[in-house]
Amino acid sequence: MKGYAMLKIGESGWIEKDRPKCGPMDAICRPLAVAICTSDVHTLWEGAIGDRHNMILGHEGCAEVVEVGELVRDFKPGDRVLVPAITPDWNSLEAQAGYSMHSGGMLAGWKFSNFKDGVFSEYFHVNDADGNLALLPDNINVVDACMLSDMVPTGFHGVELADVQFGDSVLVVGIGPVGLMSVAGANMRGASRIIAVGTRPVCVEAAKGYGATDFVSYKNGPIYQQVLDMTNGKGVDKIVIAGGGVETFAEAVKCLKPGGKIGNVNYLGSGDNIDIPRVEWGVGMGHKQINGGLMPGGRLRMEKLGALVSAGKLDLSPLSTHVFEGWDHLEEALFLMRDKPADLIKPVVKFAD
Ligand code: NAD
Ligand code: ZN
């Protein structure tokens, strides 16, 4: 089979590999559509998770099942499925402790295009099929389905980590596709004011549609200053970080109310340390919590998030700004994500309807 791989840091291309083998609890799938993620860019061009040789990229897509192991109960060849980016081992101790994303070690629930071949391939392997796959609802198209692999669950996990409650004022830092889903998630959880940090017109428009009430540009000076000005010096109740760098945390702490919570889902691709400003952190006693996490993955979450889309409560169509047809366009789509033209939110490549 052919797959599009990271050959080494900064180099990618098509390679030939054997079709993966199906274990007793596993499934082999054939993509119906795949999407490119900013994380693919961090991995390939920044070497953010270290060097990888001939590893097939991609962790966002939906698929048709072509083979299942003898212990798989709920899926069969021909099923169309949602595939989460994070595919934990559900019988691990970490999953039993409530941290499925870290099953087998920190971040090790993230397998595709991390330490296992990903979905940019004619066929790919899914471990623990009953625990990780979900049936694709008939009324969700294959392009929107790709947004359910990572963008929706990650953006929403940021909202969970920030513990957004009814009436909270929420700051969302970064309104790429993940931050946009954090805006949508915060809105669904009953946030009152949602201040979005971002400038690209296509993202600002989408953020308005998802419930953002105010906008701040990090290009107009420090974020915290602008947020404090907008909130009579009080700051916000909750913050989701879905963009920026290690320096963003200091800004967030400065405009968070005492007792507030920060949920970070941003992938910190560079920098050694995160500075927490001593005074604004209440000289150590401000009850300002900082949580950072990888989304949990798994079938139940996929089914529930899919149900939201299926019921018409979450419109994913604004996210996929660039849709291509056929493997010949995969490289173009990947390079587009690296170069991020002004009108891009997500590139998707589809192979079926
Ligand atoms: P993106 O690059 O499309 O969006 C990030 C946005 O942040 C951009 O619009 C950028 O302009 C903005 N930004 C840059 N610097 C900023 C600053 N200083 N302050 C505020 N905003 C700034 O990326 P995305 O696809 O939306 O993903 C966001 C992050 O989430 C990425 O780092 C990605 O790798 C990561 N991610 C994490 C998980 C997870 O499970 N935790 C999963 C998927 C993606
Ligand atoms: Zn992703």
Automatic annotation (TrEMBL):
Positions in coiled-coil regions: none
Alphabetic keyword roster: Metal-binding, Zinc
Cofactor(s) needed: Zn(2+)
Highest rank taxon of the organism: Bacteria
GO molecular function, one term: metal ion binding
Pfam families: ADH_N, ADH_zinc_N
Domain Enoyl reductase (ER) intervals: 10-349
Matching InterPro entries: ADH-like_C (IPR013149), ADH-like_N (IPR013154), ER (IPR020843), GroES-like_sf (IPR011032), NAD(P)-bd_dom_sf (IPR036291)
Family membership: Belongs to the zinc-containing alcohol dehydrogenase family.
Name of this chain's protein: NAD(P)-dependent alcohol dehydrogenase
Originating organism: Hominifimenecus microfluidus
